[in-house]
């Protein structure tokens, strides 16, 4: 333990000097924190990894993704590298087939592909493989491998055989802990029926959260911090809850056991109950999205602090002293946030699964028998 502490201290001290390498301390640079944050969080048509070189001669390392659009001239498939890095007077990036990627500050269609026809901007049918879509495919492949490896072991062994070890044993522990401690107590006899969906939700969210913490491809994509992804998961649970709901569930919503004046002529209680149908999945969507979005933003903000401190003053010595001291603090806080994010990744996956199970259970309420 003593040696581990010494190594960590040495790494922290070393990182205090890393940000100044290759940089002229006599120059006051500006740090665009907004661009750093949104560059990681927002979706894009290419995957920017890093920049290499000196401050005056940076070479971006980018993974170009396929563009698939249907314009007024038909379908077009090409690489995002065909869009120019040089922006026009409007800040847009021109490309082939009269297409441009709009300026991110534009009020209409920011960072999206539009087609310019006779001075007008038209949105084509856009099914391009963006950074978020690419991340989704990668996470899906990882999830399949994570699940199929234990499934293959289960297919070859019988229930009375010795418990597996290693990765397969770890996955068994996760699966059985979620199933035995969350699904069975909530759904009872119906747990096996809805376990495939709920376990898929848990492992997909958990896998996507962890992959988002990896700072380099194939990780680094903020999938669960994208409202579209969490919206799909929430809507799927919404459909399962309401399409499998019992008659008593719908009776309690449309004609609850309350005084008649609360139902007729003004349907006050039915309106409140119907409103509650939509607030439940909305809570799932917003909770997951907001927590993962905020976690990434905070971690990146801590990293940006040390770069700001290296360029906040006109005096190079002051910048160096402030930046070096802040680097130790910022990196320590960033490491703490990353460890906290690992815990939050598990908690958010568990909370989404647990609440989905609770909502399904509430929709399967049965009429109480009176003696």
TrEMBL record:
The keyword ATP-binding does not apply. InterPro entries: ATP_synth_F0_asu (IPR000568), ATP_synth_F0_asu_bact/mt (IPR045083), F0_ATP_A_sf (IPR035908). CDD domains: ATP-synt_Fo_a_6 (cd00310). It is found in: Cell membrane; Membrane. It holds the Pfam family ATP-synt_A. Keywords: ATP synthesis, Cell membrane, CF(0), Hydrogen ion transport, Ion transport, Membrane, Transmembrane, Transmembrane helix, Transport. SUPFAM superfamilies: F1F0 ATP synthase subunit A. GO terms for cellular component: plasma membrane; proton-transporting ATP synthase complex. It is a multi-pass membrane protein. It comes from the Bacteria. The chain crosses the membrane at residues 136-154, 194-216, 223-244, 264-286, 293-312, 318-339. Signal peptide: none annotated. GO terms for molecular function: proton-transporting ATP synthase activity, rotational mechanism. Gene3D superfamilies: ATP synthase, F0 complex, subunit A. Residues 85-95 have a biased composition (Basic and acidic residues). Residues 85-104 are annotated as: Disordered. Belongs to the ATPase A chain family. HAMAP family: ATP_synth_a_bact (MF_01393). Key component of the proton channel; it plays a direct role in the translocation of protons across the membrane. This is ATP synthase subunit a. It comes from Prevotella brunnea. The gene is atpB.
């Amino acid at each position: 333990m003593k040696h581990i502490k010494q190594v960590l201290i040495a790494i922290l001290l070393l990182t205090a000097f890393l940000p100044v390498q290759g940089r002229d301390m006599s120059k006051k640079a500006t740090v665009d924190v907004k661009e750093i944050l949104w560059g990681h969080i927002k979706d894009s048509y290419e995957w920017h990894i890093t920049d290499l070189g000196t401050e005056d001669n940076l070479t971006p390392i980018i993974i170009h993704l396929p563009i698939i659009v249907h314009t007024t001239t038909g379908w077009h498939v090409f690489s995002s590298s065909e869009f120019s890095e040089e922006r026009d007077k409007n800040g847009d990036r021109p490309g082939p087939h009269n297409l441009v990627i709009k300026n991110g500050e534009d009020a209409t269609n920011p960072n999206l592909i539009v087609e310019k026809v006779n001075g007008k901007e038209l949105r084509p049918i856009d099914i391009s493989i963006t950074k978020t879509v690419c991340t989704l495919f990668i996470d899906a492949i990882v999830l399949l491998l994570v699940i199929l490896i234990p499934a293959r072991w289960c297919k070859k062994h019988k229930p009375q055989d010795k418990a597996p070890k290693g990765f397969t044993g770890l996955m068994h522990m996760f699966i059985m802990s979620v199933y035995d401690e969350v699904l069975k107590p909530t759904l009872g006899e119906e747990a096996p029926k809805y376990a495939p969906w709920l376990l898929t939700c848990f492992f997909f969210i958990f896998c996507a959260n962890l992959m988002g913490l990896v700072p380099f491809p194939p990780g680094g994509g903020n999938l669960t911090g994208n409202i579209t992804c969490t919206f799909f998961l929430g809507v799927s649970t919404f459909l399962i809850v309401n399409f499998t709901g019992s008659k008593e569930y719908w009776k309690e919503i449309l004609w609850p056991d309350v005084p008649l004046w609360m139902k007729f002529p003004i349907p006050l209680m039915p309106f409140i109950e119907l409103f509650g149908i939509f607030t439940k999945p909305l809570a799932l969507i917003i909770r997951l999205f907001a927590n993962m979005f905020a976690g990434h933003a905070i971690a990146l903000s801590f990293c940006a602090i040390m770069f700001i401190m290296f360029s906040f003053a006109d005096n190079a010595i002051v910048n160096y002293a402030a930046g070096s001291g802040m680097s130790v603090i910022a990196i320590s806080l960033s490491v703490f946030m990353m460890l906290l994010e690992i815990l939050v990744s598990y908690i958010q996956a568990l909370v989404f699964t647990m609440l989905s199970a609770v909502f399904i259970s509430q929709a399967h309420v049965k009429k109480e028998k009176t003696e």
